[in-house]
Amino acid sequence: MKKSGNALPVDVSMPHLDAVVARLCNPLSLDVVWHNPAQGAAMPSLTDLEGIMSRLSAAIFPGYFGSANMRRESMRYHLSANLDSIYRMLSEQLLRGFCFACSKQKNARTSCKTDSEQAALAFMDQLPEIRRMLAGDANAAYEGDPAATSPGETIFCYPSLRVMLHHRIAHALYTLNVPVIPRIISEMAHARTGIDIHPGASIGEEFFIDHGTGVVIGETCILGRNCRLYQGVTLGAYSFPKNSDGTLIKGVPRHPVLEDAVTVYSGATILGRVTIGRGAIIGGNVWVTEDVPPGARILQDNSHV
Asked: Can you give the residue range of the structural domain that contains 99?
């Protein structure tokens, strides 16, 4: 009886592994996780989506990402080629996303290819606005952090700009009703920065997260212009409404609204569909579950100052 390294003898290991296979194929275990691709469509590719984000970074912030030798005289040529590749790659991934969603529904759509191409074109049309918003975020980071030496440094180095690059792209796709792909793009940034922003969250201009690690912003949050958060802030749901059968009701507004120029310091938790008024300041480690009037300052003892 031969052994290979530390492996079990063949006559012992094979029956053992066969038993494991049988248990893994048991419908009680498999049905929960089984994915049946619609019409043979492949799953979205994480590698290809990383490539798309790399190309989008170069298109939105030329010179910072992509070719190090980019010149304005030749930018139109490079940008045209890059956008053509982005459109083709994105259309394919959106198709896979639509097909993935179809596989989970009883009535599958018959226009996934057309829908993916139209969504990709509609997204491409938003790129100039996405760049404008991100340029404002970079400037807000520079003006809001005395350690920043230039807006360019924040683009190249800051986790806030990395996560907002992903978020503004993911949010644009989310508003086009693209399934799955926006969440994948958001989770890429979450994994790299520790900042968790759902693609459904609506975030206004000139937004900055200082430091950033541990920030959570929920799906139905609405943030106005010139808001600033610090590390460890949670903008979450206080409770989850349920149907009569006990299942969660999806999509209802359940996260905070921050009006313009709100600052939330580190460790603060704001829960539920509450409104934090314009210019309010929420102190560190505060728990907020009620509306806060404009201009108020909320401290750890929950007193208004």
From this structure: 43-194
Angle, helix 46-60 to helix 181-193, in steps of 10 degrees = 80
Does the residue 32 lie in any domain?
Answer: no
Q: 10 in a domain, yes or no?
A: no
CA distance 45 to 197: 21
Beta-carbon contacts of 142 under 8 Å, excluding residues fewer than 6 positions away, are 148, 150, 151, 153, 154
pTM of this structure: 0.89
- What are the helix (H) ranges across 104-224? 112-125, 127-144, 151-157, 159-175, 181-193
Strands 216-217, 222-223: pairing kind: unpaired
Do 186 and 50 reside in the same domain of the chain? yes
Is 144 in contact with 117 (CB distance < 8 Å)? Answer: no
Residue 204 lies in a domain: no
Residue 178 shares a structural domain with residue 250: no
pLDDT in tens, 247-276: 888 889 999 999 999 999 999 999 999 999
Strands (DSSP E) found in the chain: 196-197, 202-203, 208-210, 216-217, 222-223, 228-230, 234-236, 257-258, 263-264, 269-271, 275-276, 281-282, 287-288, 297-298
Q: Which of 131, 160, 194 is the endpoint of a domain?
A: 194
**Low-confidence residues of the chain: pLDDT under 50:** 1
